Amino acid sequence: MSTWTFITNHARVLMVISQDPTVRLRDIASSLDITERAAQRIVTELVDEGYLSRKREGRRNVYTVHPKRPMRVPQAKSVDIGSFLDLMHRNNAELRAVA
User: Which of 16, 31, 44, 96 is the most exposed place for a label (fewest CB within 10 A)?
Assistant: First the structure.
């Protein structure tokens, strides 16, 4: 049985970080059921591509999401990630309210 999803791990990591900018890589990995190494690689790719900034504060990293960056899907380049994250967070809140 295939274990694919509609939302990529990159999008899922962005969603977690947008909810908690001080989240640890260990907690990202745990909440998404990916390895800590995968979480680290994804965060580095998002930083390198300009979707996130990472700032060290003491022993923690603080992340900033850059919401005006475009989606990477060619068919959705006119949609910025901020709009995508707003939609996902709103839908998650509505699903929790129904449950």
Answer: 96
| Residues forming beta bridges with residue 64, ordered by sequence position | 53
Q: Tell me the pTM.
A: 0.84
Total of domains in the chain: 1
51 near 69, Cβ under 8 Å?
A: yes
79: CATH: 1.10.10.10
Task: Tell me whether residue 33 is in a domain.
Answer: yes
pLDDT tops 60 at residue 70? yes
What span, in angstroms and rounded, lies between the C-alpha atoms of 94 and 99? 9
Q: pLDDT tens-digit profile of 13-68?
A: 999 999 999 999 999 999 999 999 999 999 999 999 999 999 999 999 999 999 99
